[in-house]
Fold this protein.
Amino acid sequence: MAANRSLTLPYDPELAVSDAPLLEQSDQAEVSGSSGQSRQRPVKVLAGIFLSSLFLLTLIWTLFQGQEEPRDQAQMINANLNKSSPSSSVSPYSLIPASRGVPQGVSEKTFRGVSDANDIYPWTNAMLSWQRTSYHFQPEKHWMNDPNGPLFHMGWYHLFYQYNPDSAIWGNITWGHAVSRDLIHWLYLPFAMVPDRPFDVNGVWTGSATILPGGKIVMLYTGDTDDLVQVQNLAYPANLSDPLLLDWIKYPGNPVMIPPPGIGKKDFRDPTTAWLAPDGTKWLVTLGSKINKTGIAMVYETSDFKGYRLLDGVLHAVPHTGMWECVDFYPVSTAGDNGLDTSANGPGTKHVLKASLDDNKHDYYALGTYDPNNNKWTPDDPELDVGIGLRLDYGKYYASKTFYDQKKKRRILWGWIGETDSEAADLMKGWASVQTIPRTVVFDKKTGTNILQWPVEEAESLRFNATEFDTVKLEPGSIAPLNIGSATQLDIIASFEVDREALEATVEADVGYNCTTSGGAASRGKLGPFGLLVLADGSLSELTPVYFYISKSTDGSAETHFCSDESRSSKAPDVVIYTLVINYYF
Amino acid sequence: MKSFAFSCIVLAILPSLSTSYALPPLKKSNHHIFMVREKVNDLIENTCRNTPDYQLCFSTLLSDPRSFDADTYGLGLIIVDALKDKATSAVNAINRLKGSNPEFIRPLIKCSISYNAILKADIPEAIEGLRKGVPKFAEYGMADTAVEVQGCENSFKQSNSPLTDLNKQVYDLSIVAKSIIRMLL
């Protein structure tokens, strides 16, 4: 059963946690001290509630020492690069390469097969509960996936989410519901919707909210019918004057959209927030699908959200991208700093079209121009079209969705973070998945070619203690420990200044460097890697380097890579790696 | 008066093989007579040719009569069903092995955990994903199955695993299932 954290929970901004399990004192004592983020001595304990402490750091240099790796880590790197399991008599699982764009080294779950880690990993409850976050949204237990229908109403931010009330795997999907005053501290509410009608009995799936002028709310969502057909349904609050929007009514005339001719019954899902048509009275909404292997976004027109007409053609299509899930479509301001209502258009706006690609489990977007009169969106740069160009996030991130926050005039982005451990571990944990911290989205006026994201400023309310490290100077090949005491949650701001002479004197450095394929943080070059070792224990048997790497070509141009190396994040052999080293591009 | 009763039995023996379909050479001798419709054959043929293990795919599908009328989702479900059978056999084998050898105690615990995940999480997720048309969850389930199986197999030291055959069969089926699922993405 989903948690129904009562509303009597005091809303206290000092509490960094409102949805993580309360750690008993005895649990704290059991937590292994080998973790660099031990919970042994919380900085502040209030009535048995564990607080996370956040620090601010400023650093100059950290360089990694390749020779300091223990032998088994070198072996693990070889195992990763060779992509084989040396001691197993089972044939090695071969990686499926990314099917388009620059190879990200993304793999499906792979078993690292470290020959000296064949022991069963002795997971304990305390170790697994360490993985609970303190302020990323997650239910108290069981499975969650896509964020749904985010909206702001009568002083409360609402988040709905795909949720399995019965277990830690995907299935029996309902709409979980939570509310917050500040997008950071959340209170659980009863389910908004459960699969109880013929038009959604096999799944109450992803959907989006549209707020009409005057404040009326309509929710469009995908239902999987008793015949296993994917359809779109309409729901709306039972009581609009309820700030918590506890009860929802499903329109009895559902479904309102069924798969049109030429579209598969299993290829029709995830309707977006609607926007006003040029005539000012009708509404338009889009959802993704595919025709053979071409991903598409179709547009429907409606005046009352009950009757729909499919527009001719498609909003956009990109070959070889496969099924487009969780399409998102919204304007950004090219001139101002605020977010825009979903219906905005005209001079000073561009439109973002985003799709979650079923094929490789990544979220892609592109900037372009929307012509509502011809039902066409055109990317600014066809080489970086949806699904083959920029990603919204280069980590484990999917099914993202934005909404317009009319209170603070921001466009806010939610995204689902799935698990990278095995299902066995998920079953042991009893839960799986978190949401990202919500982010603001704005157009990047400096480059004009991408959007900028940042965690909402309310996240800063979680900070209450700061430690500053000034002018830390490090020589090549060194690691500088930063003593911050015990902490589980850190907010880190770090800036690095590269020695100017060294940079200019270097004529050529690591041309063609790629975080993923150039050996990760263990591979030292002339101008990198430098950054932080996080989630590391004292002996560096487990560590996650987050670092920069500068490559420079003979014509003087330099490229900065921002990488995250997960290949040595855990000794547990059942922590599987989706992406060995993430390559962010500048 | 004699009446002559003639019994005349005429047997018309129809050709039992569909002539437009050519069987690929099979490694094992196969005594089945394939009475298949040409159109459905194409789907099974094309599907299996796009998996890493044509033989396993083909023999598994052909031995299940549901495959003749199935779409790609249905073919995937048949493979997952076969995998479920094998995983169940593995669990039975694990239970029989308990107490047989002190060296096996810890690996068998690991294998129990792994196969529990396969039967309780991966396979139900794969079936759900295929039935409802959200293939990525089916893919997760089959990818995890491969990981769980490798974990079980590797937990036996010096490669003296008594479960190698079953583990390999489960593994191989998970790879075939996964490649079929990928055709749906």
Observations:
- DSSP finds five helices and 31 strands in chain A.
